[in-house]
Amino acid sequence: MKKIMILCLFAIFTVQINAKDDLAVKVFKGYCWGCHHQTAQAFGPSFKKIANVRKKDEIIAQITDPKDTYKILGYKRNSMPAFDDLNASQLNAIVAYILSFKDKK
Fold first, then answer.
1. Nearest to residue 33, comparing CAs of 56, 61, 5, 60?
2. Burial class (CB in 10 A: 0-12, 13-18, 19+), 74
3. Domain that holds residue 47
4. How many domains would you assign to the chain?
5. CA gyration radius for the chain?
């Protein structure tokens, strides 16, 4: 059911991707695009919002184990599936991509 929902949302939303890292783009399109956009609110928060309020370890925890971290991170409910099948390279690539949207100070 979750996969069907993600695929449907993936088909609805269009996103312009300006990323140099092909692995990050591949992970983004395969795992995140259905619920998250880079700078706009979608079903889930934008990468820009995430990058501005979360540290690397918090993002990793939310991606790999949202069931056990959503309350700690201040969410009222968990609607994010766990993506524990990402390898270390994929996980690091997507986290770096998310953090690339942090506001410059």
1. 5
2. exposed
3. 2-99
4. 1
5. 13
pLDDT tens profile 78-103? 989 999 899 999 999 999 999 999 99
**104 assigned to some structural domain:** no
Terminal Cα-to-Cα distance of the chain (whole angstroms): 41
Predicted local confidence at residue 16, as pLDDT: 37
Q: Is residue 47 part of a domain?
A: yes
Written as six digits, the tokens of 79 are 């609607």
What stretches of 1-105 show up as alpha helix (H) in DSSP? 2-12, 22-27, 47-53, 56-64, 66-69, 88-99
Tell me whether residue 105 is in a domain. no
Full DSSP string of 8-31: HHHHH-------S-HHHHHHIIII
Indicate whether 70 belongs to any domain: yes
**Residue 93's domain is classified under what CATH number?**
1.10.760.10
